[in-house]
Design goal:
Layout: H1 20-26, E1 36-43, E2 49-51, E3 59-62, H2 63-75, E4 80-85, H3 105-116, E5 121-126, E6 140-141, E7 144-145, H4 147-164, E8 168-171, H5 178-188, E9 195-202, H6 209-214, H7 236-247, E10 252-256, H8 262-272, E11 276-280, H9 282-293, H10 299-312, E12 317-320, H11 323-331
Parallel strand pairs: 1-3, 1-4, 1-12, 4-5, 5-8, 8-9, 9-10, 10-11, 11-12
Antiparallel strand pairs: 2-3, 6-7
Helix pairs in contact: 2-3, 4-5, 7-8
The protein binds ligand PBG.
Enzyme class: lyase
Pfam family, one: ALAD
Active site: 202 (schiff-base intermediate with substrate), 256 (schiff-base intermediate with substrate)
Length: 332
Amino acid sequence: MQPVLAPFPATRLRRNRATPALRALVRETHLDPSDLIWPVFVMEGEDCTTDIPSMPGVQRLSVDRLAKAAVEAEARGIPAMCIFPYTDMAARTEDCALAWSMDNIANRAIRAIKDAAPNMAVMTDIALDPYNINGHDGFVVDGRIVNDETVEALVKMALAQAESGADILGPSDMMDGRIGAIRAALESAGHRDVTIMSYAAKYASGYYGPFRDAVGASAALKGDKKTYQMDPANSDEALRHIARDLSEGADMVMVKPGMPYLDICRRVKDQFGVPTFAYQVSGEYAMLKAAFANGWLDPQKVVIETLMCFKRAGCDGILTYFAPEVAEALQG
Ligand code: PBG
């Protein structure tokens, strides 16, 4: 009798990895500049920028500089930019009235980008924190963040942004009922085609620290945001949020932060099959930049890898501070 040999492998998974051509053929996900939304910080002034120490390589830009940056970003194939305003501490008040002024820095930035780069989709942030003396996303009354009064203010903010020409509104405040209220107001004001990307699964995360430096909210913020942003321990709750926001009229949804929350991205995409975005937030950016500066990680390899992971996890696109350099690298 012949000895029984261990069966020789019929399946050699390495075959499909043997050459760059074969690897390209079997690649399941692709990253393209059209997957990127570039978050930018805008400030008062003319032809000037300031550095943000905890976000090396990211600057706050004056409106004219921002408009130029939009033209370059459009040329690199980036489809959307998301505007975050830096407002003077002295302009922040308890009633946050600047938030819905047509002339605030964010609304001027929307108009400037639309003028300079008409095909660039402009996304906004809807939350009171850049205008609020205490750094919170909602009004504070007797130490509590009040929901319904805040929603009324967010609606006014949304209308001013839509009026300024924003394409995508991004409510990031996490108040209950804001998507429905904003959607109804947009409809009755005739802004029927303005898209809402709800920050639907936004967690009370430690990863927002550098962003709060960038918008000058770190010093202002009293307490934390745990009564409105989600507990990082929860996952089912994210799905309830998404279902609720979609039923109220959100067109796209966001998970935030990004890479530590890829499991949420996957669950959202699988369950709802709607346009799903992740925000690779400031802390994720800062962490990678620190490792690059120390020579511990290679940016050429790691940045694309991190963004590809979002696509693999089911995201349609990513908000990332790396957008301009990645778009350039992808264009070759
Ligand atoms: C504010 C807002 C935050 C971010 C986006 N919109 C900060 C916060 O919730 O405190 C964070 C973005 C980042 O960290 O890159 N509503």
